[in-house]
């Protein structure tokens, strides 16, 4: 069976064009969206992500500010910085890049971001919305992965889906998003006894583990859609490095119906979802303030 490659760059470009229009509308209404990114310490995966965020924000005409804090910063200092951004009306979105150093509590930091400015949907109140089937704004990588599955045209109602990986930011939200759309979802993880037994049943297979080559052809049902969320840097015998996913692309591509490449699959769509979330967040704030004070007036 020949596979179709799901091109994340094409999907991302279409989403970004739509976001750009919405940004123009928001600005005309007196609400310029501004996204603040918080990173702590130097993590190469984060640096790449933030660079792409900055570039995409530029394309969508969203203001972007990058805050980089030293790895030894105290929890209280970061909380104070987040509270400052919560209180600053010019800031409409805050994203805390993961991971943060071990001495910090990521949960407490995520919970400190005001839900109206939580453009990643990781505040407990935001992630709870997904459980209640409010699916407009959710964690970017999870939303991007589901978006790519939708590109196949497969109907989600009753679809057999297997998600490999149960992280808070990817696997769990994917499972909830798909359940909300009627899929039959199995979630596998490092304690699953026989991964292949599950993965071979899947009409759609999502993989977010961080293990290069984990999924090989005999673990995939012929014709399935395979969404590869892994980002792993591997060193080749000649000492050069390259980025690969969790799926053994060359073997799986031969039997899958659809497959996402790495790079060029989920990654670019993740960044486009963040920009869309930034607009949704700013729109919610605009609505919130207008419901209290009426429409913004020119010059104020
Ligand atoms: N709070 C939080 N949310 C995240 O979603 C999050 C995070 N922290 N920390 C870091 C990881 C990593 N991540 C990436 C997203 C897109 C690309 C991306 O755009 N990848 C391109 C790479 C293109 C290039 O090489 O420039 C691609 O796959 O084609 C990469 C990495 C999000 N993460």
UniProtKB/TrEMBL annotation:
Enzyme Commission code: 1.5.1.5, 3.5.4.9
GO terms for biological process, alphabetical: L-histidine biosynthetic process; methionine biosynthetic process; purine nucleotide biosynthetic process; tetrahydrofolate interconversion
Subunit structure: Homodimer.
GO cellular component terms, A-Z: cytosol
Keyword NADP (UniProt): yes
Residues where NADP(+) binds: 165-167, 231
UniProt protein name: Bifunctional protein FolD
Coiled coil feature spans: none
Family membership: Belongs to the tetrahydrofolate dehydrogenase/cyclohydrolase family.
UniProt function note: Catalyzes the oxidation of 5,10-methylenetetrahydrofolate to 5,10-methenyltetrahydrofolate and then the hydrolysis of 5,10-methenyltetrahydrofolate to 10-formyltetrahydrofolate.
Keywords for this protein: Amino-acid biosynthesis, Histidine biosynthesis, Hydrolase, Methionine biosynthesis, Multifunctional enzyme, NADP, One-carbon metabolism, Oxidoreductase, Purine biosynthesis
InterPro entries the UniProt entry points to: Aminoacid_DH-like_N_sf, NAD(P)-bd_dom_sf, THF_DH/CycHdrlase, THF_DH/CycHdrlase_cat_dom, THF_DH/CycHdrlase_NAD-bd_dom
Pathway participation: One-carbon metabolism; tetrahydrofolate interconversion
Domain called Tetrahydrofolate dehydrogenase/cyclohydrolase NAD(P)-binding: residue spans: 139-285
Gene: folD
Signal peptide feature range: none
Pfam families (UniProt xref): THF_DHG_CYH, THF_DHG_CYH_C
Any GO molecular function: methenyltetrahydrofolate cyclohydrolase activity
PANTHER family from the UniProt entry: C-1-TETRAHYDROFOLATE SYNTHASE, CYTOPLASMIC, C-1-TETRAHYDROFOLATE SYNTHASE, CYTOPLASMIC-RELATED
Gene3D superfamilies for the chain: Leucine Dehydrogenase, chain A, domain 1, NAD(P)-binding Rossmann-like Domain
Domain Tetrahydrofolate dehydrogenase/cyclohydrolase catalytic: 6-120
CDD domains membership: NAD_bind_m-THF_DH_Cyclohyd
Swiss-Prot/TrEMBL catalytic activity: (6R)-5,10-methenyltetrahydrofolate + H2O = (6R)-10-formyltetrahydrofolate + H(+); (6R)-5,10-methylene-5,6,7,8-tetrahydrofolate + NADP(+) = (6R)-5,10-methenyltetrahydrofolate + NADPH
Record carries keyword Hydrolase: yes
